[in-house]
Structure formats: structure tokens, C-alpha cells
Design brief:
With 204 residues, the chain is of the alpha/beta class. It has nine helices and seven strands, in the order αβαααβαβαβαββαβα.
Length: 204
């Protein structure tokens, strides 16, 4: 039986994951349609509310970012998404484009994990180990995009044994009708879909 939201979001065993909310992706200079959807839905503001509530009860926050070397060394374009990611100015490690959007700037106590390979954050990285070391059992998935990143993150988290909570207003993809279809027909089978208001209330 699934746990209720208060149990799922017990601050002692929860963490927030912020997926690819980077200047070069959603900050207006990256993928146009996705950036427009983020602005139209106010996604950044909704994520900021989740982060503020999490910090108030000392829930750890993980920023999951992607970067690419200038020479694309170690990277591969074995799918359309990764090939598209190679176009234009690269997300160079430490650059403004690679950084988290200013409205969601990490605090000193937050975790920032950057990958150079792959399309999901659990793959071959240290995210799972860090979460386990912190006693985390539930991850709250926020960010972009429902098309690939959030869906992939959710599947991987479930495979690793975590409960997943998705605050609906804190995730975005494109187009809107596709996002709703994925949430209804895929993600609700894997995660607890709830609202930002309910997550904030659980942490008050």
C-alpha cells in the first residue's frame, strides 16, 4: 500500500532533485520551446517554493546538471537528443550557460552534481550512493523535462528502490498535451503525482 504524503515526505528521509534547470537549457538561451513552456507555466517559481519549504525543514537538495567539454571529448551522439545538445554554444563546465538559473541558485548546503555523459542523473553517477548515505527513501522530482529527463529520473529512482513524488507544477515539458499524457498514462503508475501546495504543506 502506498504511504500517505506526510509519511512519504518525512524530512528525515526525503530529498529534492532539481533536474537541469540551467541557463543554457531553460534560461532563454537554450531549447526554445522548452524555455518558453517553463516561462509560460511559471515552473521556476513553483520549484523555488518547493526548495524554500525543503530548506526550512532541512531536506537535502540536489541540483542535477549536465555539461559538455568544448571538444565534446568523452561524449557521443548516439541518439537525436544528444546530437541536438551538441548544436550551438556548449554547456561548458563552470560557464554561465551551464550554471543553475539565478532564481534557483544553490545554497552552500546543497549538492550540485554534474554529468558529462548520458541523459539521466542516476546512470553511472554517485547520486544513488549519496542519497542512501543520507538515509533518503523518497525523492521529490522537479525540473525538466517530462519528455525525457523527469521520466528517466523517475524510472531509475524506482529501479533503485526509492519512492518518487512529483509536484505537478514543478515539472515541465513540451508540448502541453504530451506532458499531460505522460503524467496520466506513465508517471502516475510510477510516482505520486501531487501539487506544489501539498508538498509545501507537508513540510510546514
Amino acid at each position: 500500500m502506498p504511504l500517505d504524503l506526510t509519511q512519504l515526505l518525512d524530512p528525515a528521509h526525503a530529498a529534492v532533485l532539481v533536474m537541469e534547470c540551467q541557463e543554457g537549457i531553460v534560461g532563454g538561451a537554450g531549447f526554445g520551446a522548452l524555455g518558453e513552456a517553463v516561462q509560460r507555466h511559471g515552473t521556476i517559481g513553483h520549484i523555488a517554493r518547493v526548495l524554500a519549504a525543503a530548506r526550512a525543514v532541512k531536506v537535502p537538495i540536489f541540483y542535477l546538471t549536465v555539461a559538455r567539454r568544448a571538444d565534446s571529448g568523452g561524449g557521443v551522439s548516439n541518439c537525436l537528443l544528444l546530437a541536438l545538445g551538441r548544436k550551438g554554444e556548449p554547456l561548458l563546465p563552470g560557464s554561465a550557460r551551464q550554471g543553475v538559473v539565478s532564481a534557483l541558485a544553490p545554497s552552500p548546503d546543497d549538492y550540485v552534481l554534474t554529468r558529462l555523459h548520458g541523459i539521466t542523473p542516476f546512470h553511472a553517477g554517485e547520486l544513488d550512493q549519496l542519497l542512501r548515505n543520507l538515509g533518503v527513501r523518497t525523492v521529490v522530482a522537479t525540473g525538466v523535462s517530462v519528455n525525457v529527463g523527469i521520466t528517466g529520473l523517475t524510472i531509475e529512482a524506482v529501479n533503485c528502490g526509492y519512492q518518487v513524488v512529483i509536484p505537478r507544477q514543478a515539472v515541465t515539458g513540451t508540448p502541453d498535451e504530451y506532458v499531460e499524457a505522460v503524467l496520466t498514462h506513465t508517471l502516475r503508475l510510477l510516482a505520486t503525482i501531487t501539487s506544489v501546495d501539498d508538498v509545501v504543506a507537508a513540510w510546514q
